[in-house]
Write a structure and sequence with these properties.
207 residues; binds BIS(adenosine)-5'-pentaphosphate; alpha/beta; three-stranded antiparallel sheet; globular
Length: 207
């Protein structure tokens, strides 16, 4: 099963991707996580830091090369979950030319909620698990792997606002793109995490 997750920053793509990966045994490919794992003193690491600090997208040619290399790995043979890719029309066109998504899950959430989710998010430095300050009850390490919980640089309010603008202009058009491809499924991602996941399971089990 080849799954693409579409949605604004903070819509819950990463949270749900981890649950889907666990239930269906598929690799979770997050382009954001791949970029964040780069050493900051490498050329690519520096390019990422420069773009993400401004809330902007990394140029398409760099992203496409990274995704192509990742998809060549053995664990992708039976499918994958794409989290954060494609994110522009040229990325989607390149992806659909070679590989087709079986389903594009579109996570719909109001912008007010997204701002709260992102500015309140803490992330495990080791495994990438996302937490929200409102439910952390003072914990400082990840309950899954013991890694340190940190706040992402690009989750500051002013950068979040810019990321949402970039989503509107460059990524939102992918909703229409995947509607035309005929694999779009939109879900209300403002519901609690487990409810959203139940809906996803219903969709995936009926493909
Ligand atoms: P990336 O890492 O992909 O960030 P993003 O798309 O902005 O997505 P987020 O990780 O911020 O949000 P999410 O939807 O995964 O939400 P999450 O589950 O964490 O990209 C970062 C940067 O990398 C980009 O800005 C760009 O520079 C670069 N990049 C990456 N891919 C690229 C590409 N293809 N092209 C070009 N550049 C690229 O949840 C957020 C919070 O909400 C958490 O605290 C979570 O606990 C909470 N939460 C989640 N779901 C719920 C729920 N249902 N109810 C209540 N709380 C919830």
């Amino acid at each position: 099963m080849r799954i693409v997750l579409l949605g604004a920053p903070g819509a819950g793509k990463g949270s749900q991707a981890k649950k889907i990966a666990e239930k269906y045994g598929l690799p979770h490919i997050s382009t954001g996580d791949i970029f964040r794992s780069l050493r900051p003193d490498t050329e690519l690491g520096r390019i990422f830091a420069e773009y993400s600090a401004k809330g902007q997208l990394v140029p398409d040619e760099i992203v496409l090369k990274i995704v192509e290399e990742r998809l060549e790995k053995d664990d992708c043979k039976n499918g994958f979950i794409m989290d954060g890719f494609p994110r522009t029309i040229p990325q989607a066109e390149a992806f659909e030319r070679d590989i087709h998504a079986d389903v594009a899950l579109n996570f719909q959430v109001d912008y007010g909620i997204l701002m709260d989710r992102l500015t309140g998010r803490w992330t495990c430095k080791k495994c990438g698990a996302p937490y929200h300050v409102s439910t952390m009850n003072g914990i400082t390490v990840c309950s899954k792997c013991g890694g340190e919980l940190i706040q992402r640089e690009d989750d500051k309010a002013e950068t979040v606002a810019k990321r949402l603008q970039v989503y509107d202009s460059q990524t939102k058009p992918l909703i229409e793109f995947y509607e035309k491809v005929g694999v779009l499924k939109t879900l209300d991602a403002s519901k609690p995490i487990d409810e959203v996941f139940e809906k996803i399971v219903q969709i995936l089990d009926n493909l």
